[in-house]
Amino acid sequence: MYGDDIASVLISEEQIAEKVEELAELVAKRYPADAPEGDLLLVGVLKGAIFFMTDLAKKLTVPTQMEFMAVSSYGSSTSSSGVVRIMKDLDKDIAGRNVLIVEDIIDSGLTLSWLLRNLSSRNPASLEVVTLLRKPDALRTQVDVMGVGFDIPNEFVVGYGLDYDERYRDLPYIGTLNPKVYGGK
Ligand code: 5GP
Ligand code: MG
Ligand code: MG
Fold it and tell me: Keywords, A to Z (predicted)?
């Protein structure tokens, strides 16, 4: 539906669905259904993680609650500076809760490491991360994550929540963009 904007499908809808089930099993094992800290709190990072977050929550066999945060990192649209601004904060206090950050993609890791520092200062009972995608070759800082869906090459990807200039989030798969979209030839 986007003409020839998508150069290739990197991860299909079926592959994503399978991986989400695997990750849901991993997450459910880590958290008891009747934890004294109460329901697991999923913190989704807007907007990229929305599909992953909702698909994951539906597959989890432990009760969860959902909160969302929006952060924006200064820098160009395709690279991160590590200087992060909160555009939308959590609505609830997370002190004493089991918190699981749900991320779309770890690129340099700078946004996530900032977020981990920020959220851990609010004294959650536990703080973990699950990310659908990670680019190992782009990592600039070490971040410990409980679950990773796919390690992918250092290429700009869109779809399944991920955008370029707010477009392509609605694609059910993860794909690479034709360079003509961002002004290349
Ligand atoms: P980091 O701070 O890890 O470098 O970047 C994190 C954020 O940059 C991601 O949450 C995402 O919003 C954006 N980003 C990084 N790589 C990609 C990519 O390949 N495609 C898209 N659409 N966004 C990306
Ligand atoms: Mg993100
Ligand atoms: Mg984006």
Answer: Cytoplasm, Glycosyltransferase, Magnesium, Metal-binding, Nucleotide-binding, Purine salvage, Transferase
